[in-house]
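Researcher: Last one for today. Full complex below.
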Amino acid sequence: MEEKFKEIVARYCSVKAEDIKNDMSFRDDLGLSSLDLMTFLGDLEDEFDVEFELGEDEQKLSNVRTVEDAMNMLKEYME
Amino acid sequence: MEKTIYTMWKRCEEEYSALPAVRWLVKKDVQEKKYGELAAETSAIKKGFVAEGFDHKHITLIGTSSVYWITAYMSVVTSTNTAVPLDSALPAADLIDLINRSDSEGVFLGKTFAALAGKIKAECPKVRKIWMLDGDAPEGTETVADLIAAGKDAGEPAQPTEDDISMIVFTSGTTGKSKGVMLTQSNLYCNIEAVLYDMDPGLIFLSVLPVHHAFCLTMDWLNGFWMGSVICINDSLLHMVRNMSIFQPDVMLMVPLMVETIYKRIKALGDVPPQVVAPKVFGSNMKYIFTGGAHLEPYYIGEFAKYGIEVYEGYGMTECSPVISSCKIGEGRPGSIGKPLSNVEIKFEDGEILVRGTSVMKGYYKMEAETEETLRGGWLHTGDKGYLDEDGYLFINGRVKNLIILSNGENISPEEIESKLALNDLISEIVVTGEDNMLTARIFPEPEAVEKMTPEEIQNALQDILNDYNKNQPTYKQLSRLVIRQNPFLKNSSRKIIRHQVLIDEPSA
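Model: Here's the assembly. Have a good evening.
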């Protein structure tokens, strides 16, 4: 799962999937824009068949700062 | 014939009644409403306004893009009333302030904002009615069905005149307080009329811009309706790419940030022929992307052309309803924001672009000094510097006013944020800057207050202040970086901070 996850992250940055570390920040280390991050989460929904319930609450996205944060969120929804 | 949104909508009802007007998703199913159905609903809601005594009143809309939101919006702008679309991502206190400052007497509220109803009741004395756009009606509110029921036996509503204010849109003010731009019925009508491209009914739009922005309302919705197009609603920015495959749009309006993200998606597919990539990313029909809100790097225009997508850049501001100039289909010029619209006159004053024309706002609501300042001598001062080339194409090459334009099209007034944070005892001076599409707070701490603190403690204390501020702000207004200055900012002779120096003398921590 982690491998596939990082391949999806790599779509939005110039860092290769194998070089993406869990503590990397989407914004500062990987250079994702806010929309890249949202579109990335949309990709996760499609690829892992989950539906994040963020509703209109953008604030929840500000909790997703690092690769690990997103991975944990995905795991939560997959359970 | 009067140039009003009312007459435009009447024509849509007559000419396109049986055609689809709006498509949206419920879970994964596509739903649809025809022009005739939408027009019937707006008529019923307008009779409700009559019954409830809403004539030349202001009505706020709070919610994200939905068929309910747009039905309510069309009801307001085709009546004598004024729509006040607000950014639903703003903190509750800001929304309350704007409802009060716009003198709204009615509020349409999306169901996810139901919690706001009690606060509006308690803190907005002029609000007489709150109508829930969808979902149940909590205490003190009513549903849209209630509004329609109230108007069942009401008489026909009056028609708006060209000079009636159709909407008030709040925009970042450089003085720190957002300003309510008053756009008349004819302002909007004339903007669409001047932008129109020659397309048959049935053109498919996917609307992905924030619905409270003039760019989205005028150019996706009103322009699309005028042409008899089908407007598809993007349910979430998470799903923009997915929804392009579902709705298969012909046209999309975007801010540069969206173009950048989509380009990354294309590149991620690797070395695949363009004819294979295009349908995967854009759907099978996409032909045109119109951008605005911020400057688009011309590189993308050439890159998208490889996939058969024509990208046209335009320029505008809410005060101009909003389009001032636009590259027309087949007449693009990368780097330029197109030729001024036919209803627009342009001149330059010390390099600043001044605009006059039928789409220029009536003024800022209850802000006479700001209105006079911006509409000096009948010319709107855009705050942007630019020039026309020998063929009449407009180019932007600088700014006069102090606004940060992010690539998502949001305009941020640094002073607005600075004045809030400067109240803190630990902060002596603060300047907010925008780099890499993010906001940075550059702070010179109050020497006495931090005298006994270690650098780490100062860093943590200031970061806590930023976190506290960020907590209630929409993403685009959040401060992503902190730079702690060792020295005060450089000042000019009148002791004002020299803004263009702040990145030079101490660029980072």
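The longest helix of chain A spans residues 34-48. Chain A has one domain: 2-78.
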